[in-house]
Amino acid sequence: MKRALVTVLLTLALPASAEGPAPAPAHSAPFLYEIDGPKAKHFLLGSVHVLPASAHPLPAALDAAYEATSALTIEADLAALAAPELQGRMLGAARDLGKGGLQARIGKPLFARLQKHAAKLGMPTPVCEQFQAWFCALALELFPLQQAGFASEFGIDNHFYARATDDARPVSGLETAQFQVELFTGMSPALSRQLLAATLDEDTYTSQSPEELYRIWRGGDLVALDKVLKELRQRYPELNALLLGNRNRAWMPGLLERFRSQTPQLVVVGAAHLAGSDGLLALLKAQGIEAKPATGVIELAKPPV
């Protein structure tokens, strides 16, 4: 399994470099799609949830799409996700106080690989001894990004959430913050172990490096993104269903309602949700809604709310 899997799912992967994103063929409107609804034009944007400050300003077309709309939809309320109470519950659920800790849950060979990889990253070892495997997988992916200055405050979701808050614009979520947390806290031991094993596997490390995955996003390369996710769908169908497929299908009623409304919508979701046969672009097309790749030219005129 590709080492960058978890990063793809959570952040679409980013270059682990303190200098910021690696050079990439720039798309004028990466992962931005126009939807001509029956009553208004809407936009669907594939997001990167974590970025360095140097990734800003974002491509102008993304902000133009915001200006051309009147309401913002994101995966879940970012303020609710950051609430201390919810974060505390997640950390509490992440602790493994059972006999033998993580090593007893995942076995000695995988635990040894974990410690070796953590040492390469510069993390204090032994690591994750008293934590669940899913939490350890997230920590392994986020640690080098945080060390290099990547943060959610610079992510695309947060950028538009902050703008909408300042503008007193309506903001809604496709799911609750509690649901997002429970995706991990409620993960079965088998899936939790799979998530960690996928994170530690170094097969095709170079071809799916953070730099390459950033290039995919900045270049708006949907074909390449689908190729990255294809192995997840094939090798770990349950994991794919939990983190992507099932959520995409659950979002469809709300998306259809929004795209058929007279209020122009900007919908921002992780870019990994767009690709593949169970991705949002395919699911929308099956419902008769064509999402067309946007260009750098965005019409700013919008009908009344």
What would you note in describing this structure?
The N and C termini lie far apart (46 Å). This protein has 14 helices and 6 strands. It has a 6-stranded mixed β-sheet, with helices on both faces.
- Specify Rg, calculated over alpha carbons: 19 Å
Q: Percent helix among the residues?
A: 40-55%
Largest sheet: spatial strand order? 4-3-5-2-1-6
- Main β sheet profile: 6 strands, mixed
The N- to C-terminal Cα distance equals 46 Å
**Total beta strands:** 6
Spell the H/E element sequence: HEEHEHHHHHHEHHHHHEHE
How many DSSP helices? 14
Large-scale geometry = globular
Q: Give the low-confidence spans.
A: 1-23, 204-208
Compute the average pLDDT.
84
Our estimate of the beta-strand percent is 5-15%
Q: Helix- and strand-based class?
A: alpha/beta
